[in-house]
Amino acid sequence: LTFDGMLRVVEILKTLDGNVSKPILEDLREQDPELFEQVDSQLLVFEDFVNLDNRDIQTVLKHVSSEDLVKALKGASQDLRDLFFKNMSSRAADIMREDMEVMGPLRVSDVEAAQRTILEVARKLDDEGAITMGQQEDLVY
C-alpha cells in the first residue's frame, strides 16, 4: 500500500462510525500488524485535539502528566497550545509556558513520544466514553 493509499484508507476510516471502524481495525491488526500500526498512527494525531471541546480537553488534562504535556505542546501549533492553556487555570498555564521556555530545544523523538503518550490516554478515555475523539455525532437539541 502506498503512502497516499494509506492516507486514503485513514480518511475513509475516520468517516466511519466506531462500531464499523473498530472491527475493521481489529481485523487489520490480526492480518497485517505492520500496516495496522501505520494506519493507526495516522488515524489520530496530536493536532486532532483541536477538534475536542473544552470539557474533553479538561478531562484529558486531568489524566496526563505536566512533563508529557510540556514536551507535547512544545511541538504543537500555537492554536493547539492556546486551546490547552485556556482550559487550565491562568497560573497553571503561566507555569507551563515558562517551563516550555526554559526547557530549550527538544529532540523531535522526545516530542513525538510525549504526544503518543497523551494520545494513548485520550484513546483510553474515548473507549471509556469519558471524551469523544474523532467524528462528533450530530446532536438534536
Main traits of this protein?
141 residues; single chain; disordered C terminus; mainly alpha; 8 helices
Short description:
The protein is mostly helical and 141 residues long. Helices cover 71% and strands 0% of the residues. It is globular and about 45 Å long.
Helix residue percentage: over 70%
Low-pLDDT residue spans: 136-141
- Strand-pairing-aware structural class: mainly alpha
Judging from the principal axes of the Cα atoms, what is the shape? globular
**Roughly what fraction of the amino acids lie in strands?**
under 5%
H/E order of the elements? HHHHHHHH
Number of helices: 8
Major sheet size, sense and barrel closure: none
What is the number of E strands?
0
Separation of the first and last Cα atoms: 43 Å
State mean pLDDT (0 to 100 scale): 87
What is the CA-atom radius of gyration, in angstroms? 16 Å
Polypeptide structure, described:
There is one protein chain. By secondary structure, the protein is mainly alpha-helical. The protein is 71% helix and 0% strand. The radius of gyration is 16 Å and the shape is globular. Mean pLDDT is 87; it is low at 136-141.
